[in-house]
């Protein structure tokens, strides 16, 4: 008996789209053996049909019109890899209306318009899968939707932007100024010509929004996530971090605390002995904690042609299994039943209570530490450690302090007061510190 064929269509033959074609072609045998059906890429749409991507498509497969894919009655699954929040949304909604299941890697779209897309999918009894939207080839979406479904997720700590992690890793391991390392990252293709999306934390916030929705059964707004990038991190702060036994990483952090959700993205000092501190280069990692399973650590390549394509094709294969068994909407899009998805209260950053790293540029004269510690003490901030070395930096001497747990609103008030002192020569640098990180 001839084996059944399930047809998929691809919109967007860029880097990841090319990887998808390669994975489906090169791993056709193992895909067939695992599915019991043949997965065929029937149509591929891209605005540029002339450029050689290094993969061969059969005659008649490639088209310039995305609707040749969407409206093909033989195609059961549409893969959207266009990106952005404009035409990609149009294509996904049209595909769902045409009765197709959808696979996407589009974190920006899902973090802003996910509710509308998932609602349409439920109305059409179709599925939208999005493993590749967070963590590249790391199966964190499936872990949250299925593997950890019996747990109340307590915390998420993630390094989920390869560009930012590459820059901070190079600054930590090899030295150098942020601007110089960024330029080298661009030359190597690890950073875009306009890197703002990555280095300002926006990409990380998009991904964190998706993880929070899955972990806590909510629809968090992107604007609710406090977001701070890595552009102000200096080689000096990285050196001092090492002296205190820390590494600096751009972390996505989410915690469920007393019925509220912490949701923040910012540079963070973490203990050098923690597994997240050892995640270097373009690698990603996510540390999760569930109330039943305890700590879980996932690590792998967070971007790139083949790791991301691996996640996309895995989603396509899951949908093939659903189709074969006549199932749809087997797992809710956000892991929780729609009636259980609720608004979540976001914990205000002012109420954050953690340790802090503070660096002051002071005039080199006696009494500086006494004055600064006096202001900190008046704001209920106690000092854990101090480094004061005779390092001349443009006429300033760095005075570095690590605090015990302090309220962020008190810290900011203290900084404002300290910056008015005549002994302070530059803006105070402060970096948040996380010690526990999910119990790992």
Give a quick rundown of the structure.
By secondary structure, the protein is an alpha/beta fold. The chain is built from 14 helices and 19 strands.
Fold topology:
Elements lengths: L4 E7 L3 H12 L1 H8 L2 E8 L16 E2 L2 H5 L4 E6 L6 H11 L3 E4 L2 H17 L4 E2 L10 H8 L5 E7 L2 H13 L3 H10 L8 H4 L2 H15 L9 E2 L7 H10 L1 E12 L2 E12 L11 E8 L3 E8 L3 H20 L20 E2 L6 E2 L1 E7 L5 H11 L4 E6 L8 E7 L2 E2 H11 L10 E5 L7
Parallel strand pairs: 1-2, 1-4, 2-3, 4-5, 5-6, 8-10, 10-13, 10-19
Antiparallel strand pairs: 7-9, 7-11, 9-10, 11-12, 14-18, 15-17, 15-19, 16-17
Helix pairs in contact: 1-12, 4-5, 5-10, 7-8, 13-14
Mind explaining what this structure looks like?
The strands form 3 sheets. Strands 7, 8, 9, 10, 11, 12, 13, 15, 16, 17 and 19 form an 11-stranded mixed β-sheet that branches. The chain folds into 3 domains: 5-136 and 305-340, NAD(P)-binding Rossmann-like Domain (Rossmann fold); 145-301, Dihydrodipicolinate Reductase, domain 2 (2-Layer Sandwich); 349-433, ACT domain (Alpha-Beta Plaits), CATH 3.30.70. The protein is elongated. The protein is α/β, with parallel strands linked by helices and 440 residues long. It contains 14 helices and 19 strands. The longest helix has 20 residues, at 305-324.
């Amino acid at each position: 008996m001839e084996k059944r064929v399930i047809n998929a269509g691809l919109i967007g033959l860029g880097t990841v789209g090319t990887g998808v074609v390669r994975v489906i072609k090169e791993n056709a045998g193992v895909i067939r053996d695992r599915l019991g059906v043949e997965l065929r890429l029937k149509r591929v749409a891209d605005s540029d049909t002339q450029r050689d991507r290094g993969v061969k498509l059969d005659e008649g497969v490639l088209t310039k019109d995305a609707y040749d894919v969407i409206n093909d009655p033989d195609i059961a699954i549409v893969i959207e890899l266009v990106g952005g929040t404009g035409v990609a949304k149009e294509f996904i909604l049209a595909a769902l209306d045409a009765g197709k299941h959808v696979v996407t890697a589009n974190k920006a779209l899902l973090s802003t318009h996910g509710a509308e897309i998932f609602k349409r999918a439920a109305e059409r009894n179709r599925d939208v899968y999005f493993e590749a939207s967070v963590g590249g080839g790391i199966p964190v979406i499936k872990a949250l939707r299925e593997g950890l479904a019996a747990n109340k997720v307590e915390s998420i700590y993630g390094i989920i932007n390869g560009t930012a992690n590459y820059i901070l890793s190079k600054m930590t391991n090899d030295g150098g100024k942020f601007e110089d390392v960024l330029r080298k990252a661009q030359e190597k293709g690890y950073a875009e010509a306009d890197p703002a999306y990555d280095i300002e934390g926006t990409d990380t916030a998009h991904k964190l929004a998706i993880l929070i929705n899955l972990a806590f059964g909510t629809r968090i707004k992107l604007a609710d996530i406090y977001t701070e990038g890595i552009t102000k991190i200096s080689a000096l702060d990285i050196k001092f971090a090492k002296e205190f036994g820390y590494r600096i990483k751009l972390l996505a952090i989410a915690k469920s605390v007393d019925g509220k959700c912490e949701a923040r993205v910012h540079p963070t000092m973490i203990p050098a002995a923690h597994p997240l501190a050892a995640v270097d280069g373009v690698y990603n990692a996510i540390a999760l904690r569930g109330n039943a399973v305890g700590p879980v650590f996932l690590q792998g390549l967070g971007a790139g042609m083949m790791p991301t394509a691996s996640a996309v094709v895995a989603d396509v294969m899951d949908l093939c299994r659903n189709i074969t068994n006549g199932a749809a909407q087997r797992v809710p899009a956000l892991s929780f039943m729609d009636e259980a998805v609720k608004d979540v209260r976001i914990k205000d950053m002012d109420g954050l209570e953690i340790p802090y790293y503070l660096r002051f540029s002071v005039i080199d004269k006696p009494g500086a530490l006494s004055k600064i510690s006096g202001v900190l003490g008046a704001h209920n901030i106690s000092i854990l450690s101090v480094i004061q070395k005779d390092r001349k930096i443009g006429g300033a001497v760095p005075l570095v302090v690590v605090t015990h747990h302090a309220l962020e609103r008190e810290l900011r008030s203290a900084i404002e007061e300290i910056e008015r002192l005549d002994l302070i020569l530059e803006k105070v640098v402060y970096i948040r510190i996380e010690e526990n990180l999910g119990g790992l």
